[in-house]
Write a structure and sequence with these properties.
It comes from Neobacillus piezotolerans. Helices cover 75% and strands 2% of the residues. It has 321 residues and is mainly alpha-helical. It has one domain. Helix 2 packs across helix 9 and helix 4 packs antiparallel against helix 8.
């Protein structure tokens, strides 16, 4: 139950990402700065946290062992996750992006065969959790209903640019997270892993920022302030909570899918935030039906996973989602 609670708590703080990114977009802030500034602000915050726990040296020693792997999977897990999310904010409201993001529940499950877990004392390739996938169909149905309703008011270009980038992000985030867990092999705690991935993704963010500096205006004070808010709420608090949850269930693909399913609750938090702070109109009745399907699917997904562990215990493995 603890991983589920942590997952829901992380969803609350992750929701600030969608609300603040939409706010910055509406006020004229460019998506490049919304994306890169978050990670620039995260570095000093995480350095203080890890240094305060006297864990910096072990982290840097670990990163020196496989610098290429750190660079690759951190860029995928953070860069190809967050840049597309910010790009999509120019074309869709935050709550709808949060809804599309829920496809990550299915994406993460589909990635299971790329990793190994231990069953009956043997290290075997992971299997797609079929039961969880069946529950995910309900969630996907809800996402489809919401997107179809939204598509009626948009052109094809706007619709695709608000959806395709988010779909890319749904695969990049769990893939980068799981691969980095495999690389770290349980030798680092959550704070160290988040800091290490943030540092390793900096070349991507620096390159993106240099491109932004020559193609668009520099960020305003308002965008700097809101980006700092995203860095604290989503980049540090939410990411750490989510990684803690996935660390607990590392090696159990069924539990992992349940933890990832908790992120579906983000849509409610994001919707509430946009209605309260951005005066976003309430969704139509059809969209509410889609939201209801999403929440119902998440509840069933988490419940189905929570009743399995007692029947069959699985060993811990050096990978995760």
């Amino acid at each position: 139950m603890k991983p589920i609670v942590l997952g829901i708590a992380s969803a609350f703080f992750f929701a600030f990402t969608f609300v603040l990114n939409r706010s910055m977009e509406l006020s004229g802030g460019h998506w490049i700065w919304s994306a890169s500034l978050r990670y620039f602000f995260m570095v000093p915050l995480l350095l203080l946290l890890v240094a305060g726990r006297k864990n910096l040296k072990p982290l840097f020693e670990e990163m020196k062992q496989q610098p290429g792997a750190w660079l690759l999977w951190s860029t995928i897990g953070f860069g190809l996750f967050y840049a597309p999310i910010c790009f999509a904010a120019a074309f869709s409201p935050g709550w709808l992006i949060a809804g599309t993001w829920l496809v990550t529940i299915v994406s993460g499950s589909l990635l299971s065969p790329l990793f190994f877990e231990t069953r009956n004392g043997e290290r075997v390739r992971g299997r797609i959790p079929v039961k969880g996938m069946l529950m995910s169909i309900i969630i996907l149905a809800g996402v489809a209903v919401m997107q179809l309703e939204h598509a009626k008011t948009l052109g094809m270009k706007e619709f695709l640019f608000g959806v395709i980038p988010v779909l890319i992000a749904t695969f990049a985030y769990p893939l980068g997270n799981r691969k980095m867990m495999d690389v770290a092999g349980g030798r680092l705690d959550t704070f160290q892993r988040v800091l290490g991935m943030t540092i390793a993704s900096l070349p991507f963010w620096i390159g993106l920022s240099l491109y932004g500096a020559v193609t668009t205006d520099l960020p305003s004070k308002s965008q700097l302030f809101q980006s700092a808010g995203v860095a604290i709420s989503s980049g540090v608090i939410a990411t750490v909570l989510f990684f803690m949850a996935t660390d607990i269930v590392r090696g159990d693909m069924t539990k992992m899918a349940a933890v990832e399913a908790t992120q579906s609750i983000e849509i409610l938090f994001a919707l509430g935030g946009e209605v309260l702070f951005l005066a976003t109109p309430l969704p139509s009745a059809l969209s509410w039906a889609g939201i209801a399907l999403v929440v119902a699917g998440m509840a069933l997904h988490s419940f189905s996973a929570s009743i399995l562990p007692g029947k069959k215990k699985k060993s811990m493995v050096q990978e995760q989602a």
